[in-house]
Predict the structure.
Amino acid sequence: MKSKRYNKLPLNSKELPSVSIIDILETIKNNCTTKFDESVELSFRINNKQKKNEINLRTVVNLPGGTGKNVKVAVVCEDDKMNEANQANADLVGGDDLVEKIKNGELNFEKLICTPTMMIKLSKLGKILGPKGLMPNPKLGSVTNDIVKAVNEAKAGQVELRNDKDGNIGLSIGKKSFENEQIIKNFNAVIEALEKEKSNLTIKGDLIKQAFITSSMGVSYRLKLEKSF
């Protein structure tokens, strides 16, 4: 049963023509009628059904406007790197001791970064880290010797773009309380990242079949895939 709040929202919004983010952003914010600071969310359907193979997209994008979230970052590294991690304000820092805690199921973090040497030990914990999407990956910048850069990016507004088995991608690009400019900058960064990924893939036709924008508890609208300024 839908709430009275939801019933006051626009009906059949998905049936409207595609619009630019500039034209729809205020409407999205006006639909945020809950008491909490709702997120502005994007969802994409990618063209992953190719004749020879399915497209599995996985990359990261740094959102210049931030995410509005406090990300808890853990770093597994050698002793001589721990000071760097602590100075970068990593929430958890350790070596073999932290690996052992992870092995025992202690996953009280949202992002895991490690050095290449320590990755050998973490690679054995795939069954624990993999299902949670926490396994460090060189392509995503989370296996690196540049600990300071990795931690700073994770905390500043780095999000992952990854499609599920049905070809769907979902992510937040800010909060209702954000200035419109912040959200639009984040949107443009996502579009740029998707364009870059398409150039690296062997794909026929468009990479993105459909795109929608909504708020956490609002209704969705079809979105044009074009950068806005």
